[in-house]
Structures are given as C-alpha cells and as structure tokens.
Amino acid sequence: MTFGLVAKNGPNREPRPVVDTERQLSRTTVGAIWAGVVGVCLATTLAFHDLPITAFRGQMTLALGLLYIAFGSFCSRCAIDREPIWGATLKFLVLGALLVGILCASHFAGDLWIASLPLATLAAIYFPRPVATAIQFGLYLLVMLTLGYFTDPRFAWHQAPGLFCAFVFVAIFSTITLRAIEHRRRAEQLSGELNGANQRLVAQSAQIADLATVVERNRVARDIHDGLGHYLTTIAVQLEAAEAVQASDPARMRDALAKARRLAQEALVEVRHSVGALKETPRTGDLLSSLRDLAATADQAGFGALNVHLDIQGTPCALGAERESALIRVVQEALTNVRKHASAKNVLIGIDYSQPSRTRLVVLDDGRGCGPTAGGYGLAGLKDRLIAQGGRFESGNVPEGGFQVSAEFDHP
Hints:
The protein is an alpha+beta fold and 412 residues long. 67% of the residues lie in helices and 9% in strands. Helix 1 packs antiparallel against helix 2 (56-78) and helix 6 (153-244) runs antiparallel to helix 10.
C-alpha cells in the first residue's frame, strides 16, 4: 500500500546516493505500482459497476483515469530525483484536479475512491510530515464529500470509519517506510564519510611518519653535535697543545696525547650510548655524576687555565631520563663554546633544586661574550630540545661580562 514510496524529497533534501542502474529500476517500479493500483480500480469499476464505457460518464472517467495513471506514474518516478518544492506542489495540484474529475465523472462508482490512496502516499514523499498529514486529511474529506454528494449521506457516514482507517494506514505505513529509507540513506552517507575519513587517516599517518622521521633526524643531529662535538673539540685542543709543546716539553706532549686518547675513548662510549638510546629508554639518575665528570674533564682540558666550578643547591630530585639528558647536553655545548670562543678563565656550572616547583641549570663564564649575530646550530638545537620537552632555555651576554646559558624544567 506504499504505492511507489521511495525517498522523501524537498527543497533541502539531498538525492539518495544510488547507482544509475538502481535508480532506473526504482523509477520503473514506482511508476508500475502507481499504474497498476489505479488501473485495477478503474478497470474493475468500468467492468462490474453501473458505469458503461459507451456512456459519456464512462468515457470521461476512462480518459481522466488514463491521464491520472500516466501523469501519476511520471510524478512518482520523478520523486526519486530532487526537484524544487514549487514543482512538486504544481504536480500535486494537477493530480488532485484529475482525481476530482474522476470521482465526479464516475459519480463515485465502485472502488474508484482507492485511486486517492496513491496520491496520499505521494504527499508523504513530496512534503514535510505536517504538510503531508494535512493533505492526507484533506483527501479523506474530499472522498467523503464526493461520496455523500453522489450517494446517500447516511451511507457516506456509515463508510467513514473504514475509509478513515484506510487513510490512517497509508499515512502510518508511509511514515514508517520513509523513516527506514532515510535511515538507509543516512547509513550509506555515513559509510561514504567513513571511507573518506579512512583515506584521510592513511594520508595523515604517512605525513606523521615522515614528520617523525624528520624529528628523529634532528634529535640524532643534536646528539651528535652536543655530545660527540664536545669531545672532538676537547680532543682537538689536546692535540693542538701536544703539537705546541712537542719540541720543548715532551712530557707535557705525552700527557696531552694521553688525555686525547682518553677523551676519544669517552667519545666512543658516547656514540655507543647515543646508538643505544635509539633502541632503549634512557636511564635516569646520572645527571649530577655526569656534571661532575664534565667539570673535571674541563679542568684537565689543557686549554689555558680554565677553572670550572660545580655548585649544587637544594636537594637533588629525579627529572626523568630525557630531561636530565637535555641538561647534560646544555652543559656540554656551553663548555664547548667556552673553549672555542670565550677566552674565559672561570666557568660556573650551577644547578638549583631549592625551588619546589622547578629545577634550574646555569652555565656562566667570565669570557668576552659573543657578538649580536652569534649563536649557531648548537644553541638553536638546545632550545628546540628544551622546548620539545616542556622546558625553557635562554642564552646571552651578562652585564658584568661573560656569557650565560640557562635551562629550567617545571616539576611534574
């Protein structure tokens, strides 16, 4: 009894996403249903009731019925496609006029009132639910008035409950079927959106993988510069010192070469540590011992009379392996820059645990500082490393003379 029920359309409705073959099949089916229902009503009325085909009333009823079948089939098929609301309203008015003509020409003979039910269903397809309900009730009143006019009003009143139940059944079943079709269409739409989201996710995953590769390359580059670069700089200083005293002081030359050899071994250990960090989670708890080793190594570098002092304030606390490693890199880079550029005599490495909410590290030298355009890859890499781990990093000249590098982390 849905008479070509397909998908609810209107000015703000999207067409149902179906392939062309399924659309063509649906268009043919709904047109055939409309033609079949109205055609059977018309044929049975002309054949078995007092409506001779040779009479004018019979011929008019037949002609209007054929027009109603043809135009109704066309409108039902077009309901699959999206069309403006004004077009749907115009088509519906034409079909309503044809229905009135059929009922009046036939004098409400036989079962021709059933021809109004496909039009009631089409109202549910074309219009929003409140409008469709009002139209369906109007069609019921039209049928009742026509029946009462051409027959006994008492007979019309007697038939009213049955006709009303028929219209209510069409309205309810049309609503249920339309809702099911809407759910199916929504599921198809969500499926398409999900496929699109999956494709975007795959593309984003590839971009994230590429970005992770770039980040890892930058991290390895920083590790090489901050760790291995520190040792190579110190080794170069020792070799220069050995070369300078080669003729005048063989003992100092041998001592410088021994220190260079030891530093080369430490550099090898550092390289192995960096390679292992790519496979394992770094260990924590080595910050202070590493700072003491760096201070002792700097005191023995042999590059002038460089005095390195380590100052620890407050009670040490664990910061996590990644953060402690970052602070060690800060000290290494700062000492490397002091040896290469500062011409300093004293360096202070201070780490402050006294604040309950943060840990602060400072490396301060009394050298000549740096120019306004100074600051190379090492300091920039350290800043990026600290910021990536939620820390803060600053570097620059101090008013009293010298250069200061500071880094701090908030406690979790």
